Amino acid sequence: MIQQGTPLFRKTSFAFFAAGFNTFAILYCVQPLLPEFSKEFAISPTTASLSLSITTMVLAVSMLIFGSLSEVWGRKPIMIVSMLASSVFCILTAFSSNFHVLLVFRTIEGISLAGLPSIAMAYLGEEIESKSLGAAMGLYICGNSIGAVFGRVFSGMMSDYFGWQIAIGGIGLISLAATLIFWNTLPPSQHFKARPFVIRKLGLSLIDHLKAPRLICLFVIGFLLLGSNVALFNYIGYVLLEKPYSLSQTFISWTFLIMIIGMFSSVWTGKLIDRHGKQRLLFISLFLALIGVCLTWEANLLMKIVGLGFFTFGFFGAHAVASSWVGQLALQNKAQASSLYLFFYYTGSSVGGTLGGLFWSAYGWGGVISMNVGFLLVGFILWACVSKMVQNAKKVTKIANTCAPK
């Protein structure tokens, strides 16, 4: 098993950093362009949000398929093909003649992107020793956050000066470079054991995961986390374009730099998991996210940015804890468990992004905040449920060990 501090650990971590960068730069590069789409294609903010929501929805469904196929075909080959195809389709998206064509390409991108995130956590769970898994997962999510930030800032700035087509095309070319880095750097799987492709067995194993209450709680927490995140960042651009702020697209794109906080949050949280436990860190992360959402209600621009910072720190911390907790609680078919978590996670993005548009149209920014507060409060309830179940399971195990004959 790969241990933290070794050259092989650093090599693997760098490969997944590049992979996360590729995936999330492509996925989120359209988010700052939503006002541009509304203006150019004469569509509502809710319709414009489909350029992100439809991609994440298809991504969520496709990950269930790729996660199962990786149990048969292996991890690395599927991840490489996924990254290469998504980069090519990102370039093709830049040539969309209308919004319908753009949605078609973004749908295909959702399918091609699914091959990496559905398998990445399973690869890390198989190849990295358990004591180093939290740090490795944190570094992978760090790459996700950097890619998401770069994709948003780069596309926002480029669109302001050269148009959205050049912005999206540039992201595709940069992602091709990240694909080559991943291809040449990631070590082949050493602990992967292929399984025969039996649809019935794969389906039954998925159902088994859905019967586990502890996993269900974590799946829904992931749904709520990304749903609130996408809703918040989808419509903050519309707020800042309007009076009294009247900010430029370039300035608004720079506000996405606040997501760099996620890089520190995910790594910091990953390192603290073994010391303080997942239960405590998940609660703290959810609490920080809730504070952040409430602070964005303030009309003062600085307070809005501070609120986004608090939310981002809590969001990435909670995601790092929840995703690693799924890998720990799923004793078998870890790739499928990870795929299910990410299915709920990205479904939350689609639902939260579009539902947030309805709240925005009906109630303005206050409506978006209210929706996010509701999401996070449900997250606290689920945190309490999974914490209680884990504690009860530990008590049962302790009693069983005590009563066992020696």
Automatic annotation (TrEMBL):
Residues 8-391 form the Major facilitator superfamily (MFS) profile domain. InterPro entries: MFS, MFS_dom, MFS_trans_sf. Pfam families: MFS_1. Gene3D superfamilies: MFS general substrate transporter like domains. It is a multi-pass membrane protein. Keywords: Cell membrane, Membrane, Transmembrane, Transmembrane helix, Transport. The chain crosses the membrane at residues 12-34, 46-66, 78-97, 103-125, 137-155, 161-183, 215-239, 251-269, 281-299, 305-331, 343-363, 369-386. Its main location: membrane. It is found in: Cell membrane. The keyword Cytoplasm does not apply. It comes from the Bacteria. Belongs to the major facilitator superfamily. This is MFS transporter.
